[in-house]
User: Which sequence fits this backbone?
């Protein structure tokens, strides 16, 4: 166990479970695809909120570092819904927004895990300036800095249809993974999201009923 982490980070809390195994499979696929195409900086988004972006990105990041031994940075860039901050439970005082506003390096805002193979940067203090900062060239610089130091950099983005934020960084990153909640997100909404976003390299179907014992699973410990 790693102190502070929420139980829903099953790649750590229930690493022997069927759900953790699904994340390992996802991880291996993302790694293979990325090696084939040279993807390094990847953002996770979805059509609307609540589809599982944060849960998928955090489990993917932990699994990449733990099971594949990669050096990974996970950055929380959904400023309206900072659930990654809640899931890791012990955020640093500085976050992504501090990096954007004061020009300090990533080291000052990352929380380290798994013998320093995984760094997590939470959103930090959200101010009305957040989106303006996120859309600035400073984000591009941070992506370039991270690209040098990590095998993978994942961004937990806001949903695409609700806001334009998810597309802001599309030109600065290598690819986008779209998370779709099985049986919930209507097909036309997914189509609209796919049509509106560039660089989609893959789709994760989350909460497929065969594995939905997951919810039950992590709430009964
Ligand atoms: N496969 C799943 N099984 C059970 N609960 C899930 C699953 N995926 C997401 N959830 C739950 O749904 C809620 C929304 O997930 P979250 O990852 O925060 O979505 P998003 O980041 O897309 O808004 C959370 O409470 C999360 O624990
Ligand atoms: Mg989220």
Assistant:
């Amino acid at each position: 166990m790693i102190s502070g982490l929420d139980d829903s980070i099953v790649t750590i809390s229930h690493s022997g479970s069927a759900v953790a195994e699904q994340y390992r499979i996802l991880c291996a696929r993302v790694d293979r695809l990325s090696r084939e195409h040279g993807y390094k900086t990847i953002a996770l988004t979805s059509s609307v909120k609540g589809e599982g972006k944060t849960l998928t990105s955090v489990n993917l990041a932990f699994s990449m570092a733990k099971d594949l031994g990669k050096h990974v940075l996970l950055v929380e860039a959904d400023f309206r819904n900072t659930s990654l901050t809640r899931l890791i439970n012990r955020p640093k005082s500085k976050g992504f927004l501090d990096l954007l506003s004061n020009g300090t390096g990533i080291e000052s805002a990352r929380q380290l895990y798994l013998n320093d193979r995984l760094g997590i940067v939470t959103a930090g203090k959200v101010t009305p300036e957040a989106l303006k900062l996120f859309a600035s060239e400073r984000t591009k610089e941070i992506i370039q800095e991270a690209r040098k130091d990590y095998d993978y950099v994942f961004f937990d983005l806001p949903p695409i249809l609700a806001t334009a934020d998810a597309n802001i960084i599309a030109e600065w990153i290598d690819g986008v993974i779209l998370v779709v909640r099985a049986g919930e997100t209507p097909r036309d909404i997914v189509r609209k999201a796919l049509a509106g976003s560039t660089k989609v390299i893959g789709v994760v179907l989350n909460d497929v009923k065969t594995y939905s014992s997951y919810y039950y699973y992590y709430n009964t410990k």
Summary: Residues 8, 46, 49-55, 81, 83, 206-207, 212, 214-215 surround adenosine-5'-diphosphate (ligand 1) (CB under 6 Å). The longest helix spans residues 18-37. The CA atoms of residues 112 and 119 lie 5 Å apart. The longest strand covers residues 175-181.
